[in-house]
Design brief:
It is a single chain. With 285 residues, this protein is mainly α. 79% of the residues lie in helices and 0% in strands. It has 13 helices and no strands.
């Protein structure tokens, strides 16, 4: 239990820092689909020697969830970076709270994971907290907020990554967390490459500072995904994703520190309500 808790903390920190570096790169003019592809590509190259250093038993029915996990993961990460290009980190982080709802529904349909009543109430508390975060924006908690492109991109991202999580859980069940990580890297590279080709973007040379930021993203993304898989192997998908919402607090703080985002106290109040919901999932499940 302690190891799983530490993995959750590591996942939260690495994911939030990855978002910071991704936003910094988009501000520098690097296209989201380029960042997405180079991240997957670097991770794929790094994990190749480890993947072939020992023999693995791969179940015959693992290919389909692995491919679908890579597809939804690549699309989700692309739209996340796209959202970060124009949106505030302190707003986009808390939006991710809705992922637990999507994952819960998909988990019920595909995995047969039935949440408890207290689990549903705790997820509802997480969503309630997001109300206060959105109310700190110019549009407030209204339909006008949904008209913002970066909000739409973030919603796409959370839906894609929520579905991705279910397929990753399926791959882990058929193999293990490390094998699922390898598949995530390889198929993510494939589908993010297709996105680059679709945009007909030529990947040129970058400055040394850009490469440093890319290296930081690769490190954070690798740690984030493996710790995610580690937690998924030990916990219900919808509950794990709800716990990951603790990163909303860190996102608000990092948005203020790195990008001078405003209304931090009101956003923090909302995220603390979300944290209460996440803690409720641990205690009451």
């Amino acid at each position: 239990m302690i190891i799983t808790f530490l993995a959750v903390i590591i996942r939260i920190i690495s994911n939030s820092m990855s978002n910071v570096f991704q936003k910094q790169l988009t501000i520098s003019g690097v296209q989201p689909f380029v960042i997405n592809f180079l991240t997957y590509l670097a991770l794929s190259v790094i994990c190749l020697p480890f993947a072939f250093s020992k023999n693995y038993y791969i179940a015959g029915n693992i290919l389909m969830p692995a491919v679908l996990g890579g597809l939804f993961g690549a699309m989700g990460n692309y739209y996340l970076i796209k959202a970060l290009q124009d949106g505030e980190l302190s707003v986009l982080g808390p939006i991710n709270a809705y992922k637990s709802v999507v994952a819960m529904v998909v988990g019920i349909l595909l995995l047969g994971e039935i949440p408890t009543l207290t689990g549903i109430l705790a997820v509802g508390l997480i969503i309630l907290g997001s109300y206060f975060v959105f109310d700190a924006t110019d549009e407030g908690f209204s339909l006008k907020l949904l008209q913002q492109k970066f909000i739409q991109y973030r919603i796409y991202a959370l839906v894609f990554t929520a579905v991705e999580a279910v397929f990753i859980k399926n791959v882990i069940a058929l193999s293990d967390a490390l094998t699922a990580f390898y598949f995530w890297c390889w198929f993510g590279t494939l589908f993010s490459l297709l996105n680059v080709l679709w945009h007909r973007e030529k990947i040129g040379r970058f400055s040394g500072q850009i490469y440093k930021k890319l290296a930081a993203i690769v490190l954070c993304a690798g740690i984030m995904q493996y710790s995610t898989n580690f937690v998924f192997a030990r916990m219900n998908v919808s509950y794990a994703l709800a716990l990951f919402q603790l990163s909303a607090v860190l996102s608000v703080i990092l948005g203020w520190k790195y990008f001078n985002e405003e209304n931090i106290l009101k956003k923090l109040a909302g995220t603390f309500i979300m944290v209460a919901g996440a803690v409720g999932l641990i205690i009451l499940q």
